[in-house]
Amino acid sequence: MVNFARTIIDNVIIYYATFDCIDDDTSFMSSIGSIKYVISDGILYIMCFDVLGPYRNRGIGSMLLYYALEEGRMHRVKYAKLDCMSDMTDEHNIYIKNGFKFINKTDGPEMVYTYKYNKRKCLCM
């Protein structure tokens, strides 16, 4: 089940989406994936994105990215952007698989990989 929420802080709308499931043993609802993003000045910026390890490679991350990009499309954003501070290949592969393009790598104490998504047919209809 995907749940959505919005909050406004300093006139900026922050969007949240989580993918939740019910544990068969305990019947508790728990979040197994989430995405947090803002839309500002025509740009959708993905701030946080994660799917728990045991639930990866099941399409959950792609679905969460899809929902964020669709929200951007409805707001007619110019492009979407995210920064990734991990050098783990699987984290980068999901961005590439979902249409993001690698645009920059910043070296330093924390390497930052920047990705941009601007498929016109998806974001600017």
Top keywords for this entry?
7 strands, seven-stranded mixed beta sheet, Aminopeptidase, globular, alpha+beta, disordered C terminus, 125 residues, single chain, 3 helices
Could you explain the architecture of this structure?
The chain is α+β, with helices and mostly antiparallel strands and 125 residues long. The chain has a single domain (2-123), classed as Gcn5-related N-acetyltransferase (GNAT) (Aminopeptidase, 3-Layer(aba) Sandwich). It contains three helices and seven strands; from the N terminus they run ββββαβαββα. The chain has helices at residues 60-74, 89-97, 120-123; strands spanning 2-9, 12-22, 29-40, 43-51, 79-84, 101-106, 112-117. It has a seven-stranded mixed beta sheet with strand order 1-2-3-4-5-7-6, with helices on one face.
CATH architecture: 3-Layer(aba) Sandwich
The best one-word shape is globular
Distance between the first and last residues' Cα? 27 Å
Percent of residues in beta strands: over 45%
Tally of helical segments: 3
User: What's the total count of β strands?
Assistant: 7
Written as H for each helix and E for each strand, in order along the chain, the element string is EEEEHEHEEH
User: Briefly, what CATH class?
Assistant: Alpha Beta
Describe the strand arrangement of the main beta sheet, using strand numbers. 1-2-3-4-5-7-6
> Structural class of the helix and strand makeup?
alpha+beta
Please tell me the total number of domains: 1
Question: What's the CATH H-level superfamily name?
Answer: Gcn5-related N-acetyltransferase (GNAT)
The CATH topology: Aminopeptidase
| Major β-sheet annotation | 7 strands, mixed
Low-confidence stretches: 121-125
What is the mean predicted local confidence, pLDDT?
Answer: 83
Instruction: Report helical residue fraction.
Output: 10-25%
What is Rg?
15 Å
